[in-house]
Structure formats: C-alpha cells, structure tokens
C-alpha cells in the first residue's frame, strides 16, 4: 500500500496507524524521522514526517516516546561531508550526532542490503554526504 515512489502520495492517517502499531508492539521510546522537507524532498519521506507529526500533535504516542527530526539543509551543505561539521556545531539547536568510523561502516552495510535503493547516485551520496557523518536532529 506504500510504494517507494515520489509520485505516489501516501495517506497520512494510514501511515500514522501503522507507525503507531509498530511503536506500541515494539516498545519504542524514540522515533527519528525526516523533517517537513523530507531531507531530500522525497514525498514518501514527507509523508512519514506528516504521520509522526500527527501522532505527536494528537497526543497518540505512548508516554515517554520522544521524536527527533533530521534537518534538511541546502545541497552544498549536504555534500561537503566533514567540512560541514564546524557549521553544524555552531548552528545546531538541539542534538548533533557525529558518527564514528565504525558507525559509518555499519550504515553503509545497512544501505548495501537494499540494492534496489543503492543506485550510482546514492553511492555518491553515501560517499560524500554529511548524513553519513553528521546528523543534526531537532525535537518535534
């Protein structure tokens, strides 16, 4: 019901319902999601944010379940990798994660499990992107 296709709009209530069920069944106490810009503008990413935002604003998340959102940045900051670190350190409002080399390797291994997603341009993204090194998150 949720094809990975930026041309297909996902129903916010349906996504929210499935997310809430997954959160409750698995006892999840922290949800990390995209921001309103979907980080890359991908409509499916935006739909996930909208669903989590709905759950949060309607008070449907279980007590103690926090939400953090990734921060969308311009394309220059997105691809300068570690050169973005000083700017991120100076301008982060809430939480800043800097991944270790081991965590970067783990993230790359996870991406390689999704071969249909790991196309040539995403390989470049993984190589140069700040999001493999730096994740700036904001509380919803």
Mean of residue pLDDT values: 80
Q: Radius of gyration from the CA trace?
A: 16 Å
Residue fraction in strands: 5-15%
Q: Indicate the structural class.
A: alpha+beta
Largest sheet: 4 strands, mixed
- Report helical residue fraction: 40-55%
Q: What shape does the CA trace take? A: globular
Q: SSE order, as H and E? A: HEHHEHHEHHE
Count of individual beta strands: 4
The count of helical stretches stands at 7
Kindly, what is the distance between the CA atoms of the first and last residues, rounded to a whole number of angstroms? 26 Å
Features:
7 helices, globular, N-acetylglucosaminylphosphatidylinositol deacetylase activity, N-acetylglucosaminylphosphatidylinositol deacetylase, GlcNAc_PI_deacetylase-related, alpha+beta, 140 residues, EC 3.5.1.89, four-stranded mixed β-sheet, LmbE-like_dom_sf
Which helices and strands occur, and which strands form pairs?
Blueprint: H1 12-25, E1 30-33, H2 38-41, H3 43-57, E2 66-70, H4 75-79, H5 85-91, E3 95-98, H6 101-112, H7 120-128, E4 134-139
Parallel strand pairs: 1-2
Antiparallel strand pairs: 2-4, 3-4
Describe the structure.
The chain is of the alpha+beta class. 47% of the residues lie in helices and 14% in strands. It has helices at 12-25, 38-41, 43-57, 75-79, 85-91, 101-112, 120-128; strands spanning 30-33, 66-70, 95-98, 134-139. It has a four-stranded mixed beta sheet, with helices on one face. It is globular. Residues 131-137 have low confidence and may be disordered.
Task: Summarize it.
This protein is α+β, with helices and mostly antiparallel strands and 140 residues long. The relative contact order is 0.16.
């Amino acid at each position: 019901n949720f094809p990975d296709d930026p041309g297909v709009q996902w129903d916010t209530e349906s996504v929210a319902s499935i997310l809430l069920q997954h959160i409750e069944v698995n006892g999840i106490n922290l949800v990390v999601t995209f921001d309103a810009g979907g980080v890359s503008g991908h409509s499916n990413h935006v739909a996930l944010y909208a669903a989590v935002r709905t759950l949060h604003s309607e008070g449907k998340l279980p007590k103690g379940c926090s939400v953090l959102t990734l921060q969308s940045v311009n394309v220059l900051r997105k691809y300068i990798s570690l050169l973005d670190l000083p700017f991120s350190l100076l301008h982060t409002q809430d939480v800043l994660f800097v991944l270790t080399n081991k965590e970067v390797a783990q993230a790359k291994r996870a991406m390689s499990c999704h071969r249909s997603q790991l196309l040539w341009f995403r390989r470049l993204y993984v190589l140069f992107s700040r999001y493999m090194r730096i994740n700036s998150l904001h509380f919803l």
